[in-house]
Design a protein that fits this description.
By secondary structure, this protein is α/β, with parallel strands linked by helices. The chain contains ten helices and 14 strands. A hairpin with a 2-residue loop joins strand 13 and strand 14. Helix 6 packs across helix 7. The protein starts with 28 loop residues before the first strand and ends with a helix.
């Protein structure tokens, strides 16, 4: 089960747990060299003109450390991803259901960090809760306290997006959110988000007329992802072709998850997920298998060993920025958000992976979202 990307405790936490060596087994593997020590190497601040929507869950994760300390904080894959993206671009919008018990102060904190959250779908049920137990050997386990059925109900389905009878018609922006509070002003997922009519993803969100550049779908319940990915892909139109980025979870991997790969433009699995879905221990071959399904770019996260980027037939190894991790919860999600934002900005997958590694370093520098929040303000 997943909350905020259970990738394993590692120096930068951008992949699966541990340092299980994987033979890349490919002669065309290059090295991109070490990344910058800063999430903003040029010192220019977040880029403007790019809009990313981060779709996923909001959770409350309680970390239990070997010394007995317990630290609880609201986060979730959508929030970690959005905060990671916010360090790279200005306009980051979140679509993740809000539980009935989430304090308004938490939303205010996310908004203060620059996230657009006011139109997030609202549920009458409590927020997803996880207990994350860290062991002395660096491994960890996740306990989904609220259960799988609740996890599914708190995941995003197409019904959480405003519908449009004519996806190519000009968008209008209503003053109030749609039914159920789903995706109104500030959500970034209806008309104003660029995912409304004209973008091909429903009308009436209330976020202006700018088209969304990309949508990052983070791990949610399998049924929600099976419903959502084809829906997002089918509603793209010429001239409104936002990129779809996909990050899955280690639980529930099977044929239905593998089938989703063809609906994304960029696939971002961990090495554990890549092996399971591709049926091979050769990560280079796994990247090629996924690319043959449709994604133009495949990024395989390998924790403290960085990541492999497969783009245009070339496999490049991008090293991690190794630091002593305080808490690796959500680092993989932050990596994915930062990668999507940087890739949308530059079109350079290797450069985007370097930027994302810098953001992952910030994510593990403090408990939960604290490091990312501080950097984003």
């Amino acid at each position: 089960m997943t909350g905020a990307d259970p990738t394993g405790l590692a120096p930068v936490g951008i992949g699966s747990a541990g340092a299980d060596p994987a033979a890349v087994g490919s002669a065309d593997v290059g090295s991109a060299g070490a990344g910058s020590a800063s999430a903003d190497p040029a010192g220019l601040g977040p880029a403007v003109g790019v809009i990313l929507v981060c779709v996923g869950n909001v959770t409350v994760d309680e970390a239990v450390f070997p010394d007995g300390r317990r630290v609880a904080q609201a986060g979730g894959d959508a929030i970690f991803a959005a905060l990671g993206a916010r360090l790279v671009i200005e306009d980051v919008r979140v679509c993740a259901p809000i539980g009935s018990d989430l304090p308004p102060s938490t939303l205010a904190e996310w908004q203060a960090a620059g996230l657009q959250t006011t139109g997030m779908p609202r549920r009458t049920e409590p927020t997803i809760r996880n207990v994350v137990k860290y062991r002395a050997d660096g491994s960890r386990s996740w306990d989904l306290v609220t259960g799988e059925a609740h996890f599914d109900r708190m995941s995003v389905y197409p019904s959480d997006f405003p519908e449009s009878t004519d996806p190519t018609a000009p968008r209008t922006a209503p003053a109030e959110p749609g039914p159920g509070g789903a995706l109104g002003a500030g959500s970034g997922l209806g008309a104003g988000s660029g995912l409304g009519a004209g973008s091909g993803l429903g009308a009436g969100s209330g976020l202006g007329a700018e088209p969304v550049s990309g949508v990052l779908v983070s791990a949610m319940s399998n049924p929600s992802m099976v419903a959502l990915l084809p829906w997002l892909a089918e509603r793209r139109r010429p001239g409104r072709e936002y990129r779809i980025y996909l990050d899955v979870q280690e639980d529930g991997l099977g044929p239905e998850m593998r089938a989703l790969v063809r609906h994304c433009d960029v696939f971002l699995p961990s090495e554990v997920e890549a092996r399971a879905l591709a049926g091979t221990d050769d990560l280079g071959e796994a990247a090629r298998v996924f690319a043959a399904d449709g994604p133009g770019v495949v990024v395989i996260k390998r924790a403290e060993r960085g990541c492999l980027v497969f783009d245009g037939g070339t496999l490049t190894e991008v090293p991690a920025e190794v630091v002593a991790a305080v808490d690796s919860t959500g680092a993989g999600d932050a990596f994915c958000g930062a990668f999507a934002a940087a890739h949308l900005s530059s079109g350079d997958a290797v450069a985007a992976a370097k930027r994302a590694a810098s953001v992952a370093r910030i994510a593990v520098s403090d408990h939960g979202t604290c490091g990312l929040l501080a950097a984003a303000r």
